[in-house]
Amino acid sequence: MSAKLNKKLDLVPALSGAFDCYQGPVLRLDADARVQPLNAPGEEIADILNGESELVMLPSLVQLAVKARTEGRARSRTFSIPGTDRQIEFILLPQDDGTQLLIGRDATLEVNIRSALAESRSRFKDLVDVAADFAWETDRNGCISYISGSGALGYAPEELLGKPAAMLFLDPKTVPSPSPFEVETTIRNVEVWVSSRQGDSACVLISAIPVIDAEGRWQGARGIGIDVTPERMRQGELAALKTRERLVAYIVDALRNEVTPSEMLHAAAAALGRATSSSSCTIQVTSTTGEALEFANFGAAIDPEILDSVITPLHDTDQPTDGKIGRSQYLGIATGYRGSTNGAVLLWRSEREAAFSEEDRILLKALEPQFGIVFRQISDQHILEHLSRTDELTGVFNRRAFMEDLTREMTRYERYDDGGALLFVDLDNFKPINDTLGHEKGDEVLLAVSTILAKSTRTYDLVCRLGGDEFAAWIESADEDIAQARAERFIAALAEWRDKNLPDSADLGMSIGIAMFHAGRKETVESLIAKADAAMYDAKHSGKNRIAFAAEAARDE
Whole-prediction pTM value? Predict the structure, then answer.
């Protein structure tokens, strides 16, 4: 023992040599807060505590000593020794003379191990937090025995502990076997759909390993879960977008691959109806005034009254609109071009079929601009066709359109054993009106004649201006009596207009030649018009403002 230590021990002769064999430091804290070593290991500690570093450790030591003396029992605490990397745990034993006996042991290794464990736990937690949304463990009954502190899928830990892990599955029928929460071999990134606490669907990737006890018995499983719902939703949206783009391209191709408006619309209706698994698809093109120009329907026919009641409200919004009427459900949208409505597209299903989905609405919305452009082209084509088929002055059919339509009608009459009458109208004394009253008055006369012919015939009859002051009217399914009566109405209506709008000197009238058509005669439009023209000249030669039948009709009588 050193002389320095012997000198200090002289102060406490009763304890001299008592702790020589103890490997840890032993100290005595006197009433003046001075520390005395009681063995060799305690000498260094005493020098530190009594020296310049006393303010670092001594106050806390004195405070602990006061508590020990006040409570009359031993107290212990681990202290960091100033200026060293040592950790010493001291037990303070109060003495009857008011001093404290400090028996220490080196706890450096233990403290370092605890610190390392704490750091390891923190590191593990950080890694788990980075690598997964939650960690879990299940027991041999498939119940959750551990869950991350933050919980999982919106559940707090206490809401899941002790509960069957299977309660999380969205649809147990789709869960792999065995369940990812009950694996007996390691699995990685197994995808399962679960239900969150809010009831939302969530896609989770599970990686797990089995838990085996010391005797090799299976005790459950533990693993991590990663919520990949946003990624799967984005993938689903991307897949839906690609599918939608293919459907749009398919339907637009159906429009473009046909020539006539009717064929285009029927092809598009069929393509759209099939693409959406609809029982029926209706497409209507309208003019700027709301007049129906073209109509196409795929699948089951829709009652016209029901159709009108559904299409009209569509024009009040630019969004897809759904609803139910009768035993049918529908989804429709109004089409337009540059702010002007030009048609509508409707999908139909029976009330027993699945409701239209959001994807159906998105598809219809994506197609609307394409349909709007095509419908505008069809509308323009109708306008051009109308201009090419109508007389510029009067608005009735021109000669070309009349010949085309009458040819079609006569072919149909041949097929159904029907007939009709062609009335060839030529104005009497029209040239003097132009010469004396002017061409404007002459145009007024021509407009009046076309109006008289149109109002005196039915919508499915044909009226045209052949040229100059010559007109023609085709009366469907008319016999000689009907044709005669219709011609007399023309003459009477013109006379009434003449008396109101022309001077008394104007001797305006009309000569009408009538040619009858009967199925089986193999008549051509040109020959029929020629007969009616010849009959008209017979009427003129008989004194004008008269009616004459073609020779064939006269012989039949």
Answer: 0.50
